[in-house]
Design brief:
This protein is α/β, with parallel strands linked by helices. The chain is built from six helices and six strands; from the N terminus they run βββαβααβααβα. The protein is globular. The N and C termini lie far apart (35 Å). It is an enzyme of class 2 (transferase).
């Protein structure tokens, strides 16, 4: 299976979306020039209609959950953490400690933070919804201003474009 990618404009900057075999394997907040070609494959618009549509709906405040085929690659622990992230309701947050307990690793908040940092499907797998135990915004690979933007978007529910 070969990978292909496209770049989707968004209010938080261009999103590089990578698919393989009809499933999303990566959604990154980096321009495609930051990746090795083998990581993202050739650029193509084919097969990205659903993700482009759903991201547009999300940023417009019209979508609260994504319905896309996903195939993230990671350790069993990372996959469990990423699955747990998809269970955090739109507009809500959970602490790293909460997620650690939910995946059977009480005391594993730092490990959850590391798994969050390796989340290959940002926005779609909502790692931005995980915050510090004291409610502070910490640890977001896309930068804390983007994390704040996404959380504010989900709190407001107003239309952006």
């Amino acid at each position: 299976m070969s990978r292909t990618h496209t770049v989707v404009p968004s209010p938080i900057g261009p999103l590089t979306v990578v698919a393989e075999g009809g499933a999303l394997v990566r959604l990154a907040m980096s321009p495609p020039g930051r990746f090795v070609d083998a990581e993202i494959g050739e650029r193509s618009e084919d097969g990205f209609g659903d993700v482009i549509e759903q991201l547009g709906e999300y940023f417009a405040g019209d979508r609260t959950a994504f319905d896309l085929p996903l195939r993230p690659v990671g350790s069993d622990f990372e996959l469990a953490v990423w699955e747990q992230l998809t269970l955090i309701p739109y507009g809500e947050t959970r602490s790293y400690g909460y997620v650690a307990k939910a995946v059977g690793e009480p005391g594993g908040a730092q490990a959850v933070g590391a798994a969050n940092g390796r989340n290959p499907l940002a926005v779609v797998v909502p790692c931005h919804r995980v915050i510090g135990a004291d409610g502070s915004l910490v640890g977001f690979g896309g930068g804390l201003p983007r994390k704040r933007f996404l959380l504010d978007l989900e709190q407001r529910g107003d239309r952006l474009f």
